[in-house]
Amino acid sequence: EVRVGQLDARLKLAPCANVQPYLPAGMKLWGPARIGLRCADANVRWNVFLPITVDVYGPGIVAAVSLPTGAVLGAADVKAATVNLSAMPSAAPASADLVIGRALSKPLAAGDTLREADLRARQWFAAGDNVRIVAGGNGWRIHGEGQALNPGLEGQTVRVRTESGRIVSGVAAGDRMVEVPL
C-alpha cells in the first residue's frame, strides 16, 4: 500500500513540460520514504522531494492478550495475523514457533505486532555448563564436549574450554550446543 504525501504548499515551482521522477540515492521504498521530482525543461530547472509511505503487509505474530515485560510467551499469548512489516525497523517473526518460550523485553498490548527487538535472547546454557561443540562443512560434521566459560545467549559468541584444555569460540545455537565456524 502506497500513500502519497504533499509538497510544501509554500513552494512556488515554475511550470514544467518535462518532470522526471527518480529514487534518491540510498532510498528504499519501505516505510516512510521520498521520491525525487526534477524539472528537465531546458528553460526551467528545479528539484523537489515528494514524501510517500510504503506499507508492506505479510504474515506475523501479534499479542493475543496484554503482556508485561519479562513474560515468557506461551501458545495462548500470541496469534498469527497479517501485519505491517514496514512499520518498524526490526523483523516480525512469521511463526509462533519462533517466539514460544522467549521472554519479552517490553510490555505489549493485545493486538500489538511482535518484533524481534521485543524479545530477549534465549539463554541456552550458563557459564560452567557442559556443552556440545559442533563444527561442520559441506557433507560432514564433527562434535565434541567442553565447558562454557560464559553464558550462552542465543546467537551470541561464547568461549568454551575443550576436554584437552584448548579454548575455542563459537555461537550459542541451541540447548547446550555451540557451533564453531571453520
Structural features, described:
- Helix content is 0%, strand content 42%.
- The chain has strands at 2-4, 19-22, 31-39, 47-54, 57-63, 78-84, 123-125, 130-137, 140-148, 152-153, 157-162, 167-174, 177-179.
- The chain starts with a strand and ends with a strand.
- The mean pLDDT is 92.
Report the average pLDDT across residues: 92
Give, in spatial order, the strands making up the sheet with the most strands. 8-9-11-12-13
The class by helix and strand makeup works out as mainly beta
Number of helices: 0
> Residue ranges: pLDDT <50 for 5 or more in a row?
none
Distance between the termini: 44 Å
Binned strand content: 35-45%
Largest sheet: 5 strands, mixed, barrel
Q: How much helicity do the residues have? A: under 10%
Would you list the SSEs in sequence order as H and E?
EEEEEEEEEEEEE
User: How many strands appear in the DSSP assignment?
Assistant: 13
Shape: elongated
**What is the C-alpha radius of gyration, as a whole number of Å?**
25 Å
